[in-house]
Amino acid sequence: MKYLALVYYDEQIVNAMPQPEWDALNRECMGCVEALSEGGHFLGGEPLQSVETATTVRVRNGKITTTDGPFAETKEQLAGFYMLEARDLNEALHLAGKIPPARFGTIEVRPVRELRAADNDKGKR
Q: pTM (2 decimals)?
């Protein structure tokens, strides 16, 4: 089953890291991806640019509006994601616990909902 592990952390903490510490964290993240890949659990993932680069898009009454910045003001910001393959939620949580930023941020794990044509006919959400 597929699980999305959303990586959140306070960008102020990361921005305050000395360059060698930031570089070490990035190497550790790459090592985590390598280990997850070797175990057949890593399906994809990417780090994201800072929330300062975010644009929020809304459509209301057929009109598109955009706003600079993320959708919500939060203590922690979405920093990236890992798409994982796990046999169940317990295994997905165990794998997410190995993601290095979990030490100072948060990893939100959510099962991926598969869309099927039959679901659309039934109006499932």
A: 0.85
